[in-house]
Write a structure and sequence with these properties.
The protein is an alpha/beta fold and about 200 residues long. The protein has helices at about 30-40, 135-140, 150-165, 185-195, and strands at about 5-10, 45-50, 70-75, 75-80, 105-110, 145-150, 170-180, 200. Helices cover about 20% and strands about 20% of the residues. It has a 6-stranded parallel sheet. Strand 3 and strand 4 form a beta hairpin. Helix 3 (about 150-165) packs parallel to helix 4. The radius of gyration is 16 Å and the shape is globular. About 45% of the residues are buried.
């Protein structure tokens, strides 16, 4: 059992990111058993859930003529335009049916503001609008985080970067993550997070 100051952060293990989903990550469902087995090792378990309104600005469909996976400049910077995914209340937004959710003390929903996307568990993509997770972890006395889930090179990596910037010790467990790897995004994510002090285990 890890010390009480060390929490498990489970990122977006939702149907739309698993095979058959609207934004499927190859092998996304393969992380579920590993993550389930990890939960009993931590006193604090946090789940995050992508939770978009149907007209979210990060959806290609919200921009007539725009192609999925193209880049659009938003007020907060460049934004990948995604296929519609994780619509609030939809089957795609639900956690994978085999994922243990009972051990989690809190679920952080992100991406529910239509005008700004949210990869990180800590901040929207404007890097200033907080989700409240930092305060929760501080109140619980958490100092270290182990990150698992989907996708390695986007929501997991962004969460890891923010956690490191906020002063938490951060480890990404690679065997409990899967990546999209869009235009070499996995290598870039590894470089950025490693530079920030994140450990890849």
């Amino acid at each position: 059992m890890h010390p009480k100051t060390h929490a498990l952060l489970v990122i977006d293990v939702q149907n739309d990111f698993c095979p058959g989903g609207n934004l499927a990550v190859a092998g996304g469902d393969q992380v579920v058993a590993r993550i389930n087995s990890l939960m009993s090792e931590f006193h604090t378990v946090v789940l995050t859930q992508d939770w978009h309104p149907a007209d979210h600005s990060s959806f290609a469909e919200s921009h007539p003529g725009a192609a999925a996976f193209s880049i659009l400049e938003m007020p907060y910077g460049p934004q990948v335009l995604w296929p519609k995914h994780c619509i609030q209340g939809s089957a795609g937004a639900a956690f994978h049916q085999d994922l243990r959710t009972d051990p989690a003390q809190i679920i952080i929903r992100k991406g529910f503001r239509a005008a700004v996307d949210s990869y990180s568990a800590f901040f929207e993509n404007d890097h200033t609008t907080a989700t409240g997770l930092e305060g929760y972890l501080r109140d619980r006395g958490i100092e270290k985080l182990t990150l698992v889930g989907l996708a390695t090179d986007f929501c997991v990596a962004y969460s890891a970067l923010d956690a490191a910037r906020l002063g938490f010790g951060v480890t990404i467990l690679q065997d409990a993550c899967r990546a999209i790897d869009l235009d070499d995004s996995l290598a870039q994510a590894k470089q950025q997070t490693s530079t920030a002090g994140v450990i890849w285990a």
